[in-house]
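Possible race condition, two jobs.
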Amino acid sequence: MSKLKWLNYSSFSKNSIIAALDIGSSKVCCLIGKLDNQNNLSIIGAGFYESKGLVSGIITDMKALETAIRNCVASAEKMAAVRVKKITIGFSSVNVEIENLNIEIDLKGSIVSQGDLDRAYNFLSEKHITGSRSILHIIPVQYSIDGNKGVKSPLGMFGDKLGVEISIISTDQNILKNFQNVVKQCDLEIDNIIYTPYAIGLSLLSEEEKELGVALVDIGSTLSSLSIFYNGTILFTKIIPLGGNMITNDISRIFSLSKADSERVKIINGQLIEELENSLSIIEVDALGNDNDSVEITRKDLISVIKPRVKEIINTLKEQVLESGYNHLIANRVVITGGASQMDGLINITSTIIEKRARLGKSNVIKGIPENMRSSSFSAINSLLTYSIINNNEISVRNNIKSNNSGGLYIYLIKFKNWILENF
């Protein structure tokens, strides 16, 4: 076998190679992409590996997770024949929160400048600061001039009053630091940390859906997320500790199967439509243990185990929709993605429970993506890789995340006192 030749990373232009890492509870995924001169993206490396040491977004074994990440990235690097130096990582946790803030400042009839916007962003960011949280994203929602809302970009406009509304997505500081540390222990430099459901929304949702109002549901292995987009941006997000692993555990416990066999039964035979002609057909699976016995399961019995758990997850997400206060902004549209989203009948059940039309969200196929990474199970990693080339109009918080200043992790740019001196 010929020795693998690694490409010289420095031979590429500064931004021609990008890499993304999705660290989930069931699998770790890595994609390496290359941008051409027209900024077209193609995949040159891909890998995924069974996740260890992570449960419901919380690290339980740093060493085991480090090993899984190293193996995953190494697999992608081998395919790409390039070593990854910088990487974008996705982050999800039940501790993630979103807060919508707004302020109105006095322009005194002057023209709106970038300095005015920067001071407003900093004031609102300072207002949000608490000692134990880290900001992931600061996203402009909308602006107003003299009370006239719906302004997309106020730069260059004259007015007496400038209104600024932003959404801040933040998480627990220590949980985020643990993620940073385990990635750095794998000899990787973190280029950016992205809230995964936000990246998925930017990638999977159409521009019209985001403008008119849509709920995005991502059902993962141990976590499920709800994100509400309106007027082109994210307004609400919530992660609940429920996911497809609960279904696997139910199948394993009720039918006395191994976890691995239960997962295969769920993926291959899992469905929610009882009227199917084959609902009484038999599924034969090896029984738990070493006695070479087998278990016969009818599809009807399997549905009776899967369906209540799926309903529990969707009903819990519906409660979050109602509690968000934004249900009236969702224009009769729910988009579902994640591993469990491919189960026959899930779209209909979701539509019935949430009382809105539902569709399956599929990632855009990136040139060179392996066939086995094109399903909804890989929506997250596909979205994370394309995030860096999407114009998302965010306010950069990259310096905030990399800072370890315990006196204020995300104090940056102009201090609060400068805002007071200049505006009051």
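Job #2 (started ~2 s after job #1):
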Amino acid sequence: MRLVELNEVNFDLVSKYIDNGANLPFFSSLLSEHGYAETYNGVQDDYLEPWIQWPSFHLGLTPKDHGMFHLGDSPVDDPEQIFEMAEQYGHKVGVLSAMGASNRLVSPAFFVPDPWSGATPDESRFCTELAKVLERSVNSNAQSKLLLKDLVWLSFQLFLATNVKEKYEFVRECTNFFANRTKKWKKAILLDRILIFFFQKLMTDRSATFGTLFLNGVAHIQHHHMLESSLFDGDADLYDEDPILSCYQCYDSMLDRLCTKYPEWVIATGLSQKPITNKVYFYRLDDHSRFLTSIGLINCDVQPLMSRDFWIHFKSELEAKAAIKTISRVKSADGQDVFGNFSIKANSLFVSLIFHDEITEKSTFLLDRDVIDLFSMVSFVAIKNSGHADRGYVFYSEKGKAKNTNRTSLIELRGILLEKLQFAVK
């Protein structure tokens, strides 16, 4: 069985594109022949984050019970994930990039952690290196760049693993990526295309019977470009194409190739998104250590997370508490907070860059009366087009199985999947 965690895809928008005549044959088949069940989380809006809800699905626990509220958090008391339970049922289990998952498998077919968790990959050289490449790639998302050494490594691995037809397809897709570098969403699509290929190969080469693949490209693109969609009267001419439709068409083709090869699969989105009409700017620090030094925090280590978030590791909880007071003093000229969402865990401090107005060369930021050149220390990530919504979707390989099904919580969905896994080995 293959579990595809297709994070936050809006199938309501997919359906509208299909109604408008868009060519999305696999998604059309999902919606009309397979049908879907809606999922929900039933939590307050503050908990509608993928790094909170996917662990709830993996663990069968509410956010308050598993205690994972930030990227990189580990669950309280090490409860069993769906992956260990599948292994206990007799499955050979593979995991690629499942959000918040820890490697507690006795004998994994393969395990590559998500790029933000810092979890341990399996001991194979390939998965260890792939984990490093993914982590560096995600942390460079603000610049939409891939490091040269990572491009070389990925190209070499693809060359070794592909047949002539697949080599041609990847050359064509890479050429398209480099020819359209101003269309930043192309990087996310290309990376997920590579993940799908490696997932398929690892499942086959290592004889896995249950595999989980997490794909975040669509969520990333929707957050940044939803309002540029033709469905929202967006300015698709800005890129000579509709970014959201272009994205859906790519994933329609990729998932078609992934799912039609296997008799049993489940596709779940966990969440979806809703449009935001007011302009919300997102930035991330380029050099976290440089910024911290500029405000006098020097005896600490930094762990960058997704876009605006980061952890600061101190030698004591007392130092972490003192750092909150220092960072809180950084303000815009009109008195707005620049950093917030503070949270202390042991000796570490979680911080978010929460300033959402545009940052330009003329913007002024202060630490008390001292001017801070924040403009030179940040990269523009995006104007956020959408926020998270509780509604999710799940599709099954059995046609019609999900039709007329009641809404299901993510925790209940975990139970359904475990039943399928248990039955599959009988």
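The two ends are 14 Å apart (CA to CA).
Logs attached separately.
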